[in-house]
Structure formats: C-alpha cells, structure tokens
Amino acid sequence: MGESFGRAMTWLHTWAGLVLGAVLFAVFWMGTLSVFHEELDRWMQPATRLPPPPAVISLDRLVVPLAATEAVGASQWGLMLPTAREPMAQFFYRAPDGGFVVHAIDPHTGALLPEPGSAGATGFIVPFHYGLHIEWRRLGYWLVGAASMGMLVLLVSGVVVHRRRFKEFFTFRPDKRLPRATLDLHNLTGMVALPFHFLITLTGVILFMEVYFPSAADLAYRSADNPRGSFFADAFGGFRRPLLNESGELVSLDAMVVEASARWSGSPPRFVRVWHPGDANAYVEVRRTYADQASLTRGQIFFDAGSGRILHQFDTAPVMSTQRFLSGLHFIAFDHWALRWLYFLAGLAGCAMIATGFVFWLEARRRRHAGTAMGGRRLVEALTVASVTGIIAATLALLVANRLLPADASMGSTGRSELEVWVFWAVWLVAFAHASLRGTRAWRDQTWAIGGLAFTAVLLNGLTTGHHPLAALQAQLWAVAGVDAVLLMTGAAALAVAIRLGRRGTPHTLGVDGNG
Amino acid sequence: MVDGMLLAVIVVCAYLGMAMLALSQPPHWRRVAGEPGAPPGCPRRPRRIAVLLLAASLVVALLRDGPVFGSVLWVMVLSAAAAAVAVTLAWQPRTLAQLVRLVDSAHRG
Amino acid sequence: MKGVSAGRHPLAVTQRLLLVVVGGYLLSAAAVALGGLLLTGVLAPSEAVALSAMLGFILYLVLLLWGFAERSLGRLWWLLGGGAVLGQVVVQALAWSGG
Asked: What stretches pass through the bilayer (chain C) (predicted)?
C-alpha cells in the first residue's frame, strides 16, 4: 500500500468523519431504536398494549361490518392484520374527500381503539432514521444518502488508517488515559461490527435505489407515459382495473385469505385491501407476511371481489428478489428475537464508534493546541456534544413528554402528538446551547441528564399506566417490560459514565491527566 | 426450549472460538496466563481449536435457522462474541485461564 | 497538486470535493442509466434498472475513494468532471429522443 494512499485515506477519514459525524450519529441512533419500533410504539401508545391477537381472524366478521359503517363511500378500504409484535389491527380507508384514514382496532372485538395521541416510534423515530424529517424536495433522503456513502468511505478508509490495529484485535484498555481508551473503543467497535456496519449502510442505500438513481428508470422506460410508475409496477408488482360504475358484491374475504395462504405454503397474510368496494369491478389485494422470511418480497395476489377468482398473482423477478432480500436484511421485518437484539447491539456499537471518533478528534486537537484559544474547536465540541449526548437526551425527553402530556393536550392547532415531537426538538436545541456555554463540562452534565431522564421515563410509565416493570412482566407485556429494562440499563450506564467523567480529571480536560 | 439451547451452543462456541483466537496473539496469552512466554505451538494450536469451535457454531446456526437466517445469525453472533472477549480480556482476563490450560494439555496430550 | 494530504489549499480542497462528490455522483448516475438501458437487451427493463442501480452504489463508492486518493487534480477534472458532463449529456439526449 502506497504511503501517499495511506495519507490520503487518513485525511479523508478525519475530515469526512468530522463533517458527517453528526448526521451519521443521528441516523445510527434512530436506526438502532427503529429495530424495536413496534415495542416502542406499545410503550408510547398504551391503548395498544393488548393481549396477543387471536390465531385466526375472520375478516368477514371483523372488518366487513366495520367498513359498512365507517368507510361509507370509500374508494378503498382494508386491514393491516395483527402480528406477534403488533397486537392491534389497523383498519384504513380512503375517504370520499380523498383523505386517508387509519384506525387501530382491537382484533378480538373489532372495537376502535382511542386515538393514540403519539406518533410513536413508527411515526417519528423510523422516518427520522431515513429522512431526518426534512421533507423539502426530499432533502432529508439525500442527506441520509450522502451520509451513507460517506459512511462506506469512512469504513474503507478506516480499515486503511487503522490496519495495524487488526493485529491487536480484541484490545481494549479502559484503564488507560482517555485518548487511548477512546481510540481502543473506536477500533474495537469498528472492527468487530465491521460486516454489520458495511452491510447495513449498503443495504440502506439499496433500499432507496429508485430515489437515488431516478434517471435509470426514466431511460429504460423512456417510451412509457409514466416511466417511474411503470418501473414500480414491473418491479414491485401491482394490478389495476377501472371502476365499472355498476353495483357489485363482495364474496368471503376469509376464503380468499385461505387460498392465498395455501399458495404461500401456509404463510399468513399481513394485509388485505378491497379496491372500488361495492362496484362490479371491485377487487381484493392480499399480501403475505414478512414475519417468516428475510426478504421483503411482498407476495401479492389479486382476487375478483364478486367471484373470489384469482385475477393476478405477482412473483418477484430474480434481480428484484436480490434487492428485496438485501432490503429485508436492513429492514428486519422478520421475527427473530436473537437477531433483533444483535442488530440493536451492533447498532449501538456503531453509535459508540462514531461518538468515540468524535471524541478522539477533539482530544487530539486539544493536546496539539493546549493553551491556545480555539474558537473552531469549541464550536465543534458543542456540535459534538449536542449530536451525541444531546440527541439521546432529546429522545428520552420525548418519552418523558409522552407520559407527562395529558391526553387532550394541545396548543392552538398543534395536537398532542406534535407537541411531543416539539419537546424533542426543543430539548435538542437546549442541549446545543448548553454545550456551547459549558464547553467540555457539557459531556458530564448531559450524561447526568440522560441518566435522570431514563429513570424518570420508567417511573412515569409505571405511574401513568400502572405497568411498572414487574406488572408488565406479570401481564406478559414483553414490549413494555423490554423498553423499561433498556431504559433502566441506559440510566445505570449513564450514571456510571457521569461519575467516572467527574472523577477522572479536571472538568476542562475530560479526564486527560495533566496538561497533555 | 430446544431452540434456546441451540442458541446457547452457538453463542458459547463462538465466544470460546473468539477467545482462542485472542489467545493465539502473544500479548493476550501473556495477560491471561499471567506469565511471560507464548502459547505452545504458537499461534497454530489455539488457532486450530478456534477454527473448530467457530465452525461448530456455524453448523449449529445453520441447523437451527436454515441457510439464510443461520448465516446472518452466525455473523452477528461472531461480532458480539469478539466484543465480549475484548471486554473479558480488559476486566477479567483470568476467567480465560482455563482455556490456557486446555491449550497446554492439548499440546502435551 | 500532490493529492489531498499535500494540496490542502482551500481552493484545491473545494475543487476536489465538488468534483469527487458531485461529479462522481453525476457520473455514476449516468453510468447507471446507460448501463440499465444496455441491460434491457438481455433483461426485463425493471430487472435491468435494479441491477444497474445496485451496482451504481459500488461504482460511486469506488469513485469516491479513488477521487480522494488521486494526486492529480487535472486528472480529476478530465475523468470525473468531463465524464459526468459527457454522461449526463448522452443520457438526456437519449431520454429526449426516446420520449
């Protein structure tokens, strides 16, 4: 390996890491939490803490009467069936005014559940992970995409920069001075989880390939009226037929589901939708579950609503199957508890790698410029603190606000679920302001805040819902007990780190002994 | 139940395999053995044991979860095991002393 | 110009960043579009687009790494800047002629 190549990679690793680190940490943090988005939803939406769903659900009895009363005049309606992780069903329809309405229902009784008053993890944390909630011209997607390419560059250049460290694999010296221990942790988390980090990032951009390379479909389908739509239909499947404007009937949905399931060698459906309900040309779309396969190929079968005859069955082609498989590895929609926890841990390792990379950069500059005023470094440090401990504290504040805001909370036209999210943004902003004022001491302050918020969240959940960890275990609400357990561990870990940061050095040097 | 036991086998084999790989590196061997020197037949013997253990872990993972989930599970368990070994070496290196004895006796035997 | 680690003049770094990040993307996107079009000869169009797009991320990654390691800024101008412009012109021309 040429020396100049090594030097170029070091330069690249340092500066790309510094520039992209904040975005990457946010994406990794939110992605790590997204692994358990269903469980966080149960925690944040207590009305959905239902017992496990019935093994067999009769759509004819559960959803058809509901559609007759709730979805009058809808151009489509359907049901997202419950799963082991999502005990409620979701009834949805397109209202005559064009609006799309979703209601959670209890799959045992068909009763509509109250409005959750919270976006939950599925509505806030997951979209944050892939779009940063910047919707203007899909800028968020592009920033995440750019950061992902940067992550791949950082991983390759990191292997070049730290290549000698592979001989010291397994080395972690927490007792050493902070820069040494930080670098050890950076290398360790980077090396052990390297396959995960590389694949999760690559599959992340592949998941959105048509967003990042839109011109490919434009050119390959240039003779079509709507090139991107045609690509989508060919690649992902679909079926359309127009309204006939004559009245028609709907035969048994249950029979269609049985037939679809038989064609999927016994896999249950996840999603059923009736198009043009009531029309003679009405048809029913049935999609299979992702729970028992790694791939995100949605088996799709379309039935004629009036006769129950199969109109169209879509099978994914080989290349798209590969794309769906890679996407599925990223999405982890399948049921596999061991892998889910391992993804979570590997995601945390990624967060630790990014954070320690930041800290090492700061420490290296601090030693080099000891005693001189460094305005730039101070700004970087404030950004770093806010993007590492700040976003963690803001996320925990979101959970605390979720349990503190009254059910009917609103400010003007802002509803409860938006207020919750505003708390997140406000706390993040405060964390940045605090870090700019407090300098290096902000690390310890915010770590204390994380510990306090984590314990507060568990306490408030127990007080407001009665499901304190023991009660949740007793009621077999594993999702709630699991989120509480992770919160308690987060709190304990934060306190341990805060105490250590306080003990180990003067507040100005974050544990670097002497003047460095 | 069987699933849980098989998972435990996968994890334990991966952890011991990674520990053996660590012991094939002289600094870690010295830290665990608490004495100067290098593993007997270093570094081939611990490495050979490591390969066997890691392969056993893979085979059980494939049997438990099939080719797709099995191989993904194995890769993820390897990462976690490597991190766990690093943490053990940092805080409780002596817990791996039994493995040192195992390599020693395998050498003599 | 002696590569990024030597040529740290802000102007040189800015040029390099733009060429590699933006030029590299535009070149990759053009290659993906043209590759997809070529592959329609042997694959269904949706398959051709998917294969080309997935490979495009690898191509972009290679261009990014090479672009920051390449010493000569001139070569970057020719290959990334020139390649991106040429590729995009061809793609646009084909899209127009076909539409």
From this structure: 17-43, 49-69, 76-96
Whether residues A504 and A389 fall in one domain: yes
- Please indicate, yes or no, whether residues A417 and A489 belong to a single structural domain of this protein: yes
Tell whether A293 and A380 lie within a shared domain: no
Instruction: Give the residue on A whose Cα is nearest the Cα of C65.
Output: A153
- Final residue in a domain of this structure, among A292, A315, A338: A315
Give residue-wise pLDDT tens across range A41-50. Answer: 999 999 999 9
Asked, for residue A141, whether it belongs to a domain, the answer is: no
Which of A169-183, B1-15, C26-40 shows the lowest mean pLDDT across its residues?
A169-183
A330-358 tens-digit pLDDT:
999 999 999 999 999 999 999 999 999 98
Query: Beta-strand (E) ranges in chain B?
Result: none
Q: What is the pLDDT of residue A62?
A: 93
**Min Cα separation A203/chain C (Å):** 9
Q: How far apart are CA A424 and CA A200, in angstroms?
A: 26
Please tell me the predicted confidence (pLDDT) of residue B97. 83
- B96 CB neighbour count, 10 Å cutoff: 22
Residues 6+ positions from A125 with CB-CB distance below 8 Å? A30, A33, A34, A37, A40, A395
**pLDDT score of A509:** 41
- Is the CB of residue A73 less than 8 Å from the CB of residue A80? no
Total domains present in chain A: 2
Question: A109, exposed or middle or buried, with CB in 10 Å at 0-12, 13-18, 19+?
Answer: exposed
Quick one: pLDDT at residue C8?
A: 65
For B85, the closest of A170, A196, A346 (CB atoms) is A170
The verdict on A3 touching C (C-beta cutoff 8 Å) is no
Residues A399 and A514 in one domain: yes
Q: Give the domain extent around B18.
A: 11-108
Q: Are residues A287 and A383 in the same domain?
A: no
Q: Is residue B26 part of a domain?
A: yes
| Residue of chain C minimizing CA distance to A149 | C61
| Contact between chains at C50 and A209 (C-beta distance less than 8 A) | yes
- The pLDDT value recorded for residue A25 is 97
Could you give the number of structural domains in chain B?
Answer: 1
Whether residues A407 and A514 fall in one domain: yes
Residue appearing with tokens 């061997």: B29
CA distance linking residue A311 with residue A249, whole number of Å = 16
Q: Per the CB < 8 Å rule, is C33 touching A322?
A: no
Q: Is C59 on the interface with A (CB under 8 A)?
A: no
Chains that touch B (3 or more CB pairs under 8 A): A
pLDDT at residue C3, rounded to an integer? 44
> Is some CB atom of chain A closer than 8 A to the CB atom of C32?
yes
Q: Which of A288, A315, A342 is the last residue of a domain?
A: A315
Range of the domain at A89: 52-115+238-315
DSSP A343-358: HHHHHHHHHHHHHHHH
Query: Interface pTM (ipTM) of the complex?
Result: 0.93
How many Cβ atoms are within 10 Å of A496's Cβ, its own excluded?
Answer: 12
Tell me whether residue B54 is in a domain. yes
Residue C2 binned pLDDT confidence (cut-offs 50, 70, 90): very low
**What percentage of chain A exceeds 70 in pLDDT?**
96
> Within an 8 Å CB–CB cutoff, is residue B22 touching chain A?
yes
Q: How far apart are CA A31 and CA A498, in angstroms?
A: 25
Q: How confident is the model at residue A174 (pLDDT cuts 50, 70, 90)?
A: confident
Q: Are residues A505 and A377 in the same domain?
A: yes
Q: Does residue B3 lie within any of the structural domains?
A: no
Residue A120 within any structural domain of the chain: no
- Quick check: C94 contacting A, CB < 8 Å? yes
- Cα nearest neighbour of A224 on chain C: C99
**Are chains A and C touching, using the cut-off of 8 Å on CB pairs and a minimum of 3 such pairs?**
yes
The first and second tokens of residue B32, run together, are 């665990």
The answer to whether position A454 is within a domain reads: yes
Verify cis geometry, omega within 30 degrees of 0, for the bond prior to B43: yes
Q: Which chain A residue is nearest to residue C90, measuring alpha carbons? A: A219
Does the residue A413 lie in any domain?
Answer: yes
User: A339 vs chain B: nearest CA distance in angstroms?
Assistant: 6
* Selected residue of A192, A197, A335, A344 to mutate for chain B interface (largest B Cβ count, 10 A): A192
Please check the confidence at residue B43 and state whether its pLDDT lies above 70.
no
Most A CBs within 10 Å, among C37, C46, C59, to test the A interface? C46
Is A242 touching C (CB cutoff 8 A)? Answer: no
B37 in any annotated domain: yes
